[in-house]
Design goal:
alpha+beta, Gyrase A, domain 2, Elongation Factor Tu (Ef-tu), domain 3, 2 domains, five-stranded antiparallel sheet, 16 strands, transferase, YgfZ/GcvT, YgfZ/GCV_T_CS
């Protein structure tokens, strides 16, 4: 766990002095409406600032960054020249620049790569993962303490409410799901207050909620494996086709205007006591033909898990699917696709 979250470590003096800080994650009940709190310690945070910060990111990411204001956050992909995703990010504008949220394991490599293209632009990129924490909150019980803290809540998905140095991003509407972006020095006290209101759950429980929302995650195991359309970034509004050039733009635009998408991301369920790792292979039941790749997975019950996987469309819709020999059942995603 990052040092920022050390106050949750059971062995620290802070935790021993204030048990509420380190409330043990409760068992997640996936079949009932959930109200919970989660330390999103696997979220890396990059601060991009300088006079050219927005223009620079606009030229690097799949979404429109120039028009982004402080009242909204956007999903975007950072791709290589072949249009394959190196990272998925949530982008948030602040008065001091822009914040990029991505999987923490990718933060260092992402900063190094982006710095290669700064050239003469007035842009600085800093890893602030140890200075800014993100708390996940879910459910109707989260609304009253958040309203007291923020004054009001963003009602649209992607909406942002700002209160001094704290920012609240609306992630979903059903259920209510938020990400609270907090300076590190305020994190222990704010966590203790919220932990007295909501049960604390593990990062795997949060990952399950992301899966049910159809939100993909790129990890080191799946870097450069998918173009953004395969990850459903079109219905998730993570691609702009009118913004101009960025790495991989030609491939991504050609897929949109001239090509036919042969793979896309599906939500699935399987009986297993161990969730599969990102990058594991899904096979078609007849003959064991490779059908696709696991993007992310999480336990839903001790005996079953849910996952997102990018699959060949013709195999996903015409064949039974297997993962490590166990059957996969399709589940609905909360968004639709253009036909």
């Amino acid at each position: 766990m990052p040092r920022l979250w050390n106050f949750l470590d059971l062995s620290t003096p802070e935790r021993r002095a204030n048990p509420a800080l380190g409330q043990t994650p409760t068992e997640f009940s996936p079949n009932e409406p959930s109200e919970c709190l989660c330390a999103l310690s696997d979220w890396g945070v990059i601060h991009v600032h300088g006079a050219d910060a927005a223009a620079f990111l606009h030229s690097q990411l799949s979404n429109d960054i120039q028009s982004l204001d402080t009242a909204n956050a956007r999903l975007a992909a950072y791709c290589n020249a072949k249009g394959r995703a190196l990272a998925l990010l949530r982008v948030l504008r602040t008065d001091a620049g822009l914040l990029l949220f991505t999987h923490k394991a990718l933060t260092d490599s992402l900063i190094r790569r982006l710095r290669m293209f700064v050239l003469r632009s007035k842009v600085t990129l800093d890893d602030v993962s140890e200075a800014i924490g993100v708390i996940g909150l879910v459910g109707a019980a989260a609304r009253p303490p958040l309203q007291r803290l923020m004054g009001s809540l963003p009602e649209q998905v992607g909406g942002v409410q700002n209160a001094d140095e704290i920012r609240l991003i609306r992630l979903d509407c059903v259920p209510d799901r938020f990400a609270l972006v907090v300076p590190g020095r305020l994190l222990p006290e704010l966590w203790a207050r919220l932990a007295n209101t909501l049960p604390v759950v593990s990062s795997e429980a949060w990952r399950l909620l992301e899966i049910r929302a159809g939100i993909p995650t790129i990890t080191p195991a799946t870097q450069e494996a998918f173009v953004p359309q395969m990850l459903n970034l079109e219905p998730l509004q993570g691609i702009s086709y009118s913004k101009g050039c960025y790495p991989g733009q030609e491939v991504i635009a050609r897929m949109h205007y001239l090509g036919k998408l042969k793979r896309r991301m599906y939500r699935l369920h399987t009986q297993t006591a161990t969730a599969p790792a990102p990058g594991e292979i899904v096979r078609a039941g007849t003959g064991g033909q490779e059908a696709g790749t696991v993007v992310t997975a999480a336990q839903a019950t001790p005996e079953s898990c849910e996952l997102l996987a990018v699959l060949r469309i013709e195999l996903a819709e015409q064949n039974s699917l297997l993962l490590n020999g166990a059957p996969l059942q399709p589940l609905e995603l909360p968004y639709s696709f253009d036909t």
